[in-house]
Amino acid sequence: MKRVLLLEPHFVMRNTVANVARQLRLADIHEATHYEAALRMLQTDVYDALLADLGEKLDGLTLVQQVRSGATLCDPEVPIAVMALGLDADTIGVFKTLKVQRIMIKPFKVKTAVEVLASLSGAALPA
């Protein structure tokens, strides 16, 4: 099972996404509640994918940039998806340049999170 780092500051959202992924055996989810914790985790361990909240201060963007630049132990080409309350066209363009696979606009349905996690981890969706 692929190891996915989930960066989400809000408990209910983080808990829901992580628990669904675990119950459906989509990924081995590791949770971070803030940017600094996620960065430490990425600098001390290898993950197969990243699902990161953009954050109010765009910390998620900074984290994606660090992964893509090789500043973490992850493969710089690791699959990445981001979650955000909303994005402008410029930020979407930056994420495309950084090869972010999916952008999920909050609020999103659990089904969307399941599909994104399955895509990131390469897991088959349950029938």
Task: Walk me through what this model shows.
The chain has helices spanning 11-23, 35-44, 59-68, 89-97, 110-121; strands spanning 3-7, 28-32, 49-53, 80-84, 102-105. It is of the alpha/beta class. The protein has a single domain (3-121), classed as Rossmann fold (3-Layer(aba) Sandwich), CATH 3.40.50. A 5-stranded parallel β-sheet has the order 2-1-3-4-5, sandwiched between helices. The protein is globular. The chain starts with a strand and ends in a 6-residue tail after the last helix.
How would a crystallographer describe the biggest sheet? 5 strands, parallel
- Helix proportion of residues, in percent? 40-55%
Structural class: alpha/beta
Helix and strand sequence: EHEHEHEHEH
Which strand order do you get reading across the main beta sheet?
A: 2-1-3-4-5
Task: Report strand %.
Answer: 15-25%
**Alpha-carbon distance between the two ends:** 18 Å
Low-confidence stretches: none
Class in CATH? Alpha Beta
Q: Tell me the name of the CATH homologous superfamily.
A: Response regulator
Query: How many domains make up the 3D coordinates?
Result: 1
Q: What integer value in Å does the Rg equal?
A: 13 Å
Number of helices: 5
Looking at CATH, which topology would you report?
Rossmann fold
Shape: globular
Please specify the SSE layout and strand pairing.
Layout: E1 3-7, H1 11-23, E2 28-32, H2 35-44, E3 49-53, H3 59-68, E4 80-84, H4 89-97, E5 102-105, H5 110-121
Parallel strand pairs: 1-2, 1-3, 3-4, 4-5
Helix pairs in contact: 1-5, 2-3
